Amino acid sequence: MSPFLKSISQFVGRPLRGVATSLAVLQLVAGATIAAHAQQRSLPVVRDAEIETLLRDYAKPIFAAAGLQNAGVDIVLVNDPSFNAFVAGRRMFINTGALLTAETPSEIIGVIAHEAGHLAGGHQERLRDQLARAQTMAVVATLLGLGATVGGALANNGGIAQSGAGIAMGGAEIARRSLLGYQRTEELAADRSALEYLRKTNQSAEGMLKTFSRFASALALSGARVDPYQVSHPMPRERIANLEVVARESPYFDSKDPATLQARHDLMRAKIAAYTEGPSATARLFRYDPVGLPARYADVVNTHLRGSPTNALSKVDALLKDYPKNPYFHEMRGEILMRANKPSEAAKAYSTALSLSPGKQELIQIQRGKALIATGDDAAIRQAVKEIREALRRDGDNPDAYFHLAQAYGRLGDVAEAELATAEAHFYSASYKEARIFAARAQQKFKTGAPGWVRAQDIINMKPPRK
What we know:
Blueprint: H1 19-29, E1 45-46, H2 49-66, E2 74-78, E3 85-88, E4 91-95, H3 96-101, H4 105-120, H5 123-154, H6 158-200, H7 206-222, H8 236-249, H9 259-276, H10 279-285, H11 293-306, H12 309-322, H13 327-339, H14 343-356, H15 361-374, H16 378-394, H17 399-412, H18 415-428, H19 432-443, H20 451-461
Helix pairs in contact: 1-6, 2-4, 2-6, 4-6, 4-7, 5-6, 6-8, 7-8, 9-11, 10-11, 11-12, 12-13, 13-14, 13-15, 14-15, 15-16, 15-17, 16-17, 17-18, 18-19, 18-20, 19-20
């Protein structure tokens, strides 16, 4: 499995802005009283050490400026081609489509700054309150309307009955518009906070403006006529008008992204394009520099996915000859060697990647553990258990790691730990029924009161999130 599509998980509880909010609005129109934050959704989450490290580097100064440096905010990659980002709890979700579309780091940094504004401003919590108020308004209007309708029917007065229906529909519409208006206000507040964070960190807001200009162009080209009072976000041109003057007043507006950061950004786009869209996409992306480093990196990934391991290995070795200190080229080499059925050599490549990696080492460490398991050597498998467990101490909700751990314990004949690790893998994949089944099986093999028995009991007793 590739390092980019290394782990696909499920996150439950879509955030209050975006799709879930649209669902709540539709429910309000019908007079429903279901809270939007209770909507359950699965997201295709991808894990990649290179991309996650880059995004953390983008976010670190922004989070500090927003006072979120100690808030434990996680950045999560969503495998989705649309340009979107959102927050839920203490997680910030960014679509791969946004990363692929953004030509410069400042565009993504602006997105992170905007979402940080939502987190720092407590917008999710306040939106829940607004949803509750809007739902109350809709319910009251519906009850009043129903009362008038019933009264009109009993009095055999069609006019009163008809007006009752109008009251019900009108009340729901007022509630819906009130909620949408509140959301637009919060979006503008997050935009202003983003400008503040960018100024504090000596960064340009030009990337933010470029993003909104792209949205405006796409809307214009679509030919769609949008009522600005019927959407949850301000219109792109309105956002530009509200931000451009203040953005250009910043002494850092003309600042450019550091060349090293731009280079890492280009490599990220190359990887995403190769994994999600293939050679034709990477050829278009780098048509003006078909022999540059990003294009070469994309070619390695494309060859690895769609060509022979021998050719892919030759190409990645050529990259490493020119850039021997890049940890992610070594990680890719390990992935290619795994496909070539050379796990011992792959483990060595991952070890080199680990020694050079500046961050998110746990993901590479899990890959190394996977390679050690594939050798079939008991000593190597025991080392794999040690390394995967160490990685899980820093990244404890990684289902992919638990599946590898289960495989290692199974090879070593430790059935109880294998079944508990399988239960953990299902638990963090939101497959709660399977998690309880394997936890129950594991518990029978542990001594009562042992740590494994207690953890299995926790999984058995766990109540899934309400739908």
